[in-house]
Design brief:
The protein is an all-alpha fold. The longest helix has 28 residues. The chain is rod-shaped, with a radius of gyration of 29 Å. The N and C termini lie far apart (about 95 Å).
Length: about 80
């Protein structure tokens, strides 16, 4: 009896699929948080530079758009009261 070619188990070649080009929600959030972190580091250095130049906490807060508490917190975290 002759074996039927259609019934034999022949594996097909592996198929490569490209990764999704659309970033996932988690990837987007991670990127935004990393961007925000770098922005905060820049914010802190600007607040410190402004204080070094003699600006008051109130003036720094008004110019930066941050609350006076935020300005005070940044200054305290760098040992400036």
């Amino acid at each position: 009896m002759k074996a039927d070619a259609r019934n034999t188990c022949v594996p097909s070649p592996p198929v490569w699929t490209a990764p999704s080009t659309k970033p996932s929600g988690e990837m987007l959030i991670r990127a935004k948080l990393a961007e925000y972190r770098s922005m905060c580091e820049e914010r802190d250095s600007l607040i410190l530079a402004a204080k070094k130049e003699g600006l008051s906490e109130v003036a720094i807060a008004e110019l930066s758009g941050h609350s006076r508490n935020t300005v005070r917190s940044v200054l305290r975290s760098h040992g400036i009261s």
